[in-house]
Amino acid sequence: MVNICLIGTGRAGMIHGRNMAGKIKNARLIALCDPMEENLQKAQSELAVKYVYRNYRDALANDEIDAVVIVTPTAYHKEIAIAAAQAKKHILCEKPLTMDEQECKEIIAAAKTNNVKLQVGFMRRFDANFQEAKKVVDEGAIGDVTLIKSLTHGPSQPKEWMYDISISSGPIGEVNSHDLDTLRWFANDEVASIYAIGGNFRSPEVKENYPDYYDTVSMNIKFKSGILGAIDGAQYVQYGYDARAEVLGTKGSILIGEQGKNNVLIAQQNHQMTRSTMNSWTHLFREAYVAEDQAFVDCILEDTTPLVTGYDGMMAVKLVHAGLTSLLNNRIEYVS
Ligand SMILES: NC(=O)c1ccc[n+]([C@@H]2O[C@H](COP(=O)([O-])OP(=O)(O)OC[C@H]3O[C@@H](n4cnc5c(N)ncnc54)[C@H](O)[C@@H]3O)[C@@H](O)[C@H]2O)c1
């Protein structure tokens, strides 16, 4: 059994909490930690745990805890992950790993020195459709990969802090770090250059206070091997949550993802056919989060390398930074 402590009991935290409390083999959720009383109590009433903490340092002092899932706002990931590694706890950290590459390096080094697993929360890599596509691509069924496209659109109005791109990076960080990871994964390669353009189309009222804010972005990418990539991202699209990808090869193409919530298509007298859209990432990737959490527990028990490593987390952070630099300076950004 792996005894887990959930650190951060907000939106994404509760997904991992519910999984670890009942859906994951060989895992036991024994502790919750959150300084926000309201969230902590709500989590405690739903998830019966042995220990409850307001301060993560108290949780890390508990020898019964083997591993932590860090789901706090990104700004706190670094200090909590490093302290967890030093306390010899295995770490599943939500994406983005941190806000900058140097901090990622420090977390990776702490995990290595203390010999603990570090897995980063790119759950698309555990989604059955993405996994099948990856297998087919790697088997060569569509020939050589030439172009990978990926998009993520989020439905909700940004929270106030998200308009300040110095702390949120805007959609490139908030939503497209997943797409950047998807492209690296399918290309089996690293990015050589990025060119990003963007605009604020849906929130004109914030233009004065946040002139750099953009809600829509389009990125052109070139990998070191020459493979091409295209990503688009958007916030506040309102119609639903949308995540899709396409891999074009020399001998075929693969499409992944669709917006439909289910397969029910309703045809009516007005000659219109309708189908509900997917309203949240929590539904679209529900099973992927379970598989992600199971893989984390398995890699601890089997002493294997996590399927999404600290290095993957760091490369996504680096690419978010390169994309944002390109957008703000209106130039191609070369990645070393
Ligand atoms: N994989 C995904 O697709 C995905 C989706 C959503 C969020 N996330 C990531 O998950 C993280 C959390 O996002 P969220 O939307 O759940 O945020 P949230 O605001 O809903 O929840 C964060 C929780 O962390 C708590 N917290 C703050 N400081 C803490 C500390 N020092 N110790 C313990 N708890 C603390 C807050 O009180 C809050 O309850 C972010 O890094 C975010 O980018 C990933």
TrEMBL record:
Keywords annotated in UniProt: Oxidoreductase
Limits of the GFO/IDH/MocA-like oxidoreductase domain: 130-254
GO cellular component, one term: cytoplasm
Gene Ontology annotations of biological process type: NADPH regeneration
Superkingdom classification of source: Bacteria
GO MF, one annotated term: nucleotide binding
Pfam families from the UniProt entry: GFO_IDH_MocA, GFO_IDH_MocA_C3
Domain Gfo/Idh/MocA-like oxidoreductase N-terminal: 3-122
Assigned protein family: Belongs to the Gfo/Idh/MocA family.
Name of the featured protein: Oxidoreductase
Organism from which the protein derives: Tetragenococcus osmophilus
